[in-house]
Amino acid sequence: MSANFFFPTPDLRLLAFWQKAEKTAGAGRILMILGILCFLSAICLTSWFWFFTGIVFLGAGINLLIYSRKTWSQQAMECSYTINEPSTLKAVAVSALLQNPTVLLTGFPGSPDLILVFTAIHAFILQLGTGEAMESRALALKEEIKSHFTGPWQNAELCQPAVSIQEISAQCDYIAGEYCTEPLAKELADVIGRFAASANAVVLFGRPFPKTFSATTLERVSPAPAVTFTGPGMLLKHGLALVAIIILMAGGFFFINRLNSNHTVPVSPPAETALKPQPEQFRPPVNLMEKEEGTAASTRKPNPDRPEGLRVSQRTMGSISLTWQPVPGTAGYEVMRNNRRVALTRNHFYTDEGLRPGTRYTYTVRAYNNDNSFSEPSEAFSATTVKDTIPPTAPTNLTLNIVSGKKARLNWQPATDNLAVDGYEVFRNGRKIGVTKETNYTDEQVDNENVSYTVRAFDPARNYSKHSNPAGGLLPDEIAPTTPGNITFSRTLQSVRLSWSSAQDNRGVAGYAVYRDGQKIGTTQNTFFVDEGLTPDSNYTYTIRAYDLANNYSRPSETISVRTLADTTPPSVPGQLKVAGTGSHTVRLSWAAATDNSGHVKYEIYRDGDKIGTTTATTFTVDNLAPGNSYSFRVKAVDQSGNSSAFSATVHAETEKSRVTIYYRKGFTTPYLHYQQTNGIWTVPPGVAMSEAEVAGYTKITVELGYADYLLCAFSDGKGKWDPNPPPLCQRGDSAYKFKEGTWTFENGQIKAGSP
Fold first, then answer.
1. At a CB cut-off of 8 Å and minimum separation 6, what does 9 contact?
2. Summary count for the chain: helices (H), strands (E)
3. Percent of the chain that is helix, strand, coil (3-state, to 5)
4. Burial letters 610-634, b for 16+ CB under 10 A, else e
5. CATH number listed for the domain at residues 303-384
6. Where are the domains of the chain?
């Protein structure tokens, strides 16, 4: 690893903390389950002993759960240190991720600008930058993960590249808000721990931490912890679980107390022949007919009279109230429902509760007296509870959370019913796909791209509510196309034409990316591509990758190597070489273009047998020539492979002689120009008279320079008056005016270029 992201490396130590916390939490869950079983036993047996035992178990289980989470958070904080990484983007990413229950893998070898995030249900690769190199490293990391993991973590999702703090914060918020909702399983923690050890990476199992990170804090390098731990807060689910436990305890207390104080005594099913011991004044009788045969008949008293007039006084959807005529001299009555004893009561009325709506029940009643004698059963009476015809309300606020390309999670607000909601039916695109008693459902077999869900509630009487609001969306495409195959090619001197068999995709292939020598050179929607502008007789390698509309790229195709054809044909000879223009120092040449099989040629220009220049145009200007000299020129064509044509025909050109033209504003009646001759000899004073110019008020003269660089001269009136004064002589030529080749205007002692 190029640089440790945390120090020291805490991966194996933190894994041991995780396992210890999971064992403690598991013991707490077992104690809580035992507590709930004790509560149920207390309700069934009306036992205060089991009730208080359940309280002890529940309290111990809750304490272990809270202790495991607290110690885990503290130990995870102890293994987290100040970040020693000068990357603001990575600092912001870690700051956002440490706030959530995720597993964070950083510092992957050779990829310091990638962060790998595992959640309980998915894995992500954050790219802290853009470019082909970044994408290649991310794909390599994805392949590494695929070889170590199975299930939903096998192919990590490539997040959009981020190049700013705002973009990386948005990516981390997306992961945290949508996927960091469940704790990690121990098995996944073990696998990630082994993967981190083999990759020499740093692993942090994060619980919710205080949000005290900032980019400034993270960039500071210090051995002290970057944050302080204040203990895990009470989560909403913990609060709801605690409220449910309190309600269960209170309900059990109320129910047991009510059973012990009610005049109606529930009994066991018919299979139990002995009743529970009761106080002496209210102990159930024993039928004398069931005593041993040795009992004397003289001790047996007559049985009570049979109860008459059994009828129903009231019915509801969940209860039937019975009444009958009282029997004199009885101690109580036994109530039977469907030939099973349901109660013993001292009253001549009884309300049977907890029944199912719309259900028929048959009742009989027997009287018994104090000497444990039972009467004959009353005449059987049948009654039906009121049928439930009121449907539940429709579930509300149905929301859809797309987990992956084949999994969607639904949540909704519960429905209400006059009795109770028995469950919910889930519909996808109008077809029922599942039933649940919870207010959430995970569809793991999504088979359409566009999905729409609804939910409806039902009660025990199978009254169905209306459908909820619809929730739908387009599922993300996480499946890459297949790899293109069967690559073939054809070639020319400067091009390669590739063709391949089409790839397949679950939603359709959008196109193909073509790579030459590892670099992407273009895309196409066809199954062929022409790479042009290549160098003849050169070797190139190509690979093809298919991509879909979701920008999922296939694996690269097989690599194919192609060498362009060699060029051995020379160009044609340039024709019609001619002199297009001359100057005193330049000659301009032009010619007809040559042709070549490669289509690209350049021209070499020769002067008097020596190469003086190269051009791709069909014109060339030769400069730095001497005035008044004669030169010969010829041209030949050369292609990209160095094949040369024959020389063109030779042309001759002569440069113009160098001249100076001077315009002189009249200062003398007849100006004279006294100048130095080409051979270095001055004219005879006063010089040469200047003639009238085409411009009024000016005189004009043209003098050949020959091989001189400039003209030395002075002006006079021909009668001894000079400008400059005194006039220049051969020995004092430096006092004269200097004129270079070209046209000049002399006025009031100032020399200006061009004519007046």
1. 202
2. 8, 43
3. 25, 35, 45
4. eeeeeeeebebebeebebeeebebb
5. 2.60.40.10
6. 11-215, 303-384, 396-474, 485-563, 575-654, 659-753
- What's the rounded Cα separation, in Å, for the pair 409 and 412? 10
pLDDT in tens, 591-649: 999 888 777 789 999 998 899 899 989 999 998 888 878 899 999 999 877 888 889 88
Cβ atoms of 242 and 235 within 8 Å: the answer is no
How far apart CA 274 and CA 280 sit, in angstroms, is: 16
pLDDT at position 517, please? 93
| 485-563 and 659-753 share one fold | yes
Q: How confident is the model at residue 659 (pLDDT cuts 50, 70, 90)?
A: confident
**Which among 222, 115, 110 is positioned nearest to 175, based on CA atoms?**
115
396-474: CATH architecture = Sandwich (2.60)
- Per-residue buried b or exposed e for 303-340, using 16+ beta carbons within 10 Å of the residue's own CB: bbeebeebeeeeeebbebbbbbeebeebbbbbbbbeee
Task: For 503-561, write each residue's pLDDT tens digit.
Answer: 998 888 999 999 999 999 999 999 999 999 888 889 999 999 999 988 899 999 999 99
Tokens (6 digits) for 718: 């021909």
148: closest CA among 199, 182, 113? 199
Architecture (CATH level 2) of domain 659-753: Sandwich (2.60)
204-263 pLDDT, tens digit per residue, is 544 433 333 333 333 323 333 333 323 333 445 556 666 777 776 676 666 666 555 444
Closest CA to 507 of 545, 558, 552: 552
Which structure tokens are listed for 84?
């020693």
pLDDT band of 412, cuts 50, 70, 90: very high
Which residue, among 317, 453, 444, 445, has the nearest Cα to 395 in the 3D structure?
453
Question: Which amino acid belongs to residue 386?
Answer: V
**Residue 253 carries which side chain, given as an amino acid letter?**
F
pLDDT in tens, 717-734: 888 888 887 777 654 556
DSSP 526: S
Indicate the pLDDT class of residue 489, thresholds 50, 70 and 90: very high
- How would residue 74 be classed by pLDDT, with cut points 50, 70 and 90? low
The number of residues making up the chain comes to 756
Residue type, 718: G
Q: Which residue has the tokens 């195959």?
A: 485
- B/e letters for 385-396, b = 16+ CB within 10 Å, e = fewer, are beebeebbbbbe
Those residues with Cβ within 8 angstroms of residue 84's Cβ, 6 or more apart along the chain or in another chain: 3, 4, 5, 6, 7, 221
pTM score of the predicted model:
0.34
Domain 575-654, CATH: 2.60.40.10
Residues sharing a CB contact under 8 Å with residue 740, sequence separation 6 or more, in sequence order:
660, 709, 710, 711
> What CATH number was assigned to the domain covering residues 485-563?
2.60.40.10
